[in-house]
Amino acid sequence: MTGPIVTVCIVTFNQRAFIGECIRSVLEQQAQARLRILVGDDASDDGTSDIVAQLSAEHPETITHLRQVARSGAFVNMRNLIVRADGEFIARTDGDDYWLPGKLQRQIQYLQAHGDCAAVYTNAITVDEAGHRIGLFNDVGDARFDLGALLRRGNFLNNSSVLFRMSGRQAWLDVETPQIDYRVHLWHARHGYLAHLGAPLTAYRVNLGGSATTAMNDKVRELYWEAIQSVPRELVGDADYAHGIADFMRRVCFRALSTRNRHLLHEWWPRVRAASPYGSLHTAALVIASILRIGGKTLGGCFRRGPDGRPLRILYRR
After folding, report:
1. What three-state secondary structure class fits 145?
2. Cβ(29)–Cβ(109) under 8 Å?
3. Confidence of residue 306 (pLDDT cuts 50, 70, 90)
4. pLDDT tens digits, residue range 116-140?
5. What pLDDT, in 10s, does the model give residues 27-39?
6. Are strands 5-12 and 34-41 parallel, antiparallel or unpaired?
7. Tens digit of pLDDT for each residue in 164-223?
8. Cα–Cα distance for residue pair 87/57, rounded to 1 Å
9. Helix/strand/coil (H/E/C) assignment for every residue in 220-263
10. Cβ burial, residue 309 (10 Å; 0-12/13-18/19+)
11. What pTM, to 2 d.p., does this model score?
12. Pseudo-torsion of CA 137, 143, 149, 151, nearest 10°?
């Protein structure tokens, strides 16, 4: 096999029902590249380790099984893999997601043809625990985004779809405490534009019990806020920054509404207002505009149909 070396970092913990499909979907990519698959097994105790060990034994030249003896958490697990990565490009995926045919080759070709692109993502189909298709991850087609555009509309990128240059590992090496994926995306956008392929070339599993992102718990919300604050202010204008924190507040409002937790509004509005480069009224207007925009897109989406005639469900709208 010739071509660039691509290190694929897969993190897993107790995903016996999914990890085999995930790893095989990487092995089956028809890409002109030399694959190196690192599987970070975070002390699984449900049989996941046996599946990874078997696949590693079948493909010893490609798969490295790195099993932790004690749980370290998703951030440390992934960071350890990123540190070990080598070659020209790095790809990431969670052990309960999987790739669709043609994904990796299209991304490699894109990065090779566009030297000013820092990372390339794809859309994803969303599937449930049984593998039944639900809808799409986002409503974004083929597009490019700079730092301001990514900050302005918040996170809508599928983490398990990314391919980035080896220099992008610094996004992980520079941070020693847990960080949310959005912070990594913003780091990439500081060093080149981000590309998004509208074709769904990844499968993202939703509605899994215990998902911190789905629950949007307090810790994830704080990490999201830290991601916004990590952007050097001299790199973005006031308008992009103000829209970014307004989009964050919109997400808080939606969460407060869905959980009937008014405390979130009392907790976060003073912080958003204090951080905004604009006054309270202007900032409130931006939040309301963001709520109406996403609310309108969500309502309009109720009337869109997929190829099967059923409503087309979109997980994240931009």
Report:
1. strand
2. no
3. low
4. 999 999 999 999 999 899 999 999 9
5. 999 999 999 999 9
6. parallel
7. 999 999 999 999 899 999 999 999 999 999 999 999 999 999 975 544 444 458 999 999
8. 23
9. HHHHHHHHHHCCCHHHCCHHHHHHHHHHHHHHHHHHHHHHCCCH
10. exposed
11. 0.93
12. 30
Buried b (16+ CB within 10 A) or exposed e, 121-133: bbbbebbeeeeee
Give residue for tokens 């897993």.
12
Contact 61, 32 (CB under 8 A): no
Candidates 135, 156, 149, 264; CA nearest to 200 is 135
Q: Look at the block and give the residue holding tokens 């097994």.
A: 41
Average the pLDDT over 260-285 and give the result. 96
273, 286 in Cβ contact below 8 A?
A: no
Q: Do the beta carbons of residue 290 and residue 112 sit within 8 Å?
A: no
Residue 102 tokens, joined: 């043609």
Tokens 């006054």 locate to 279
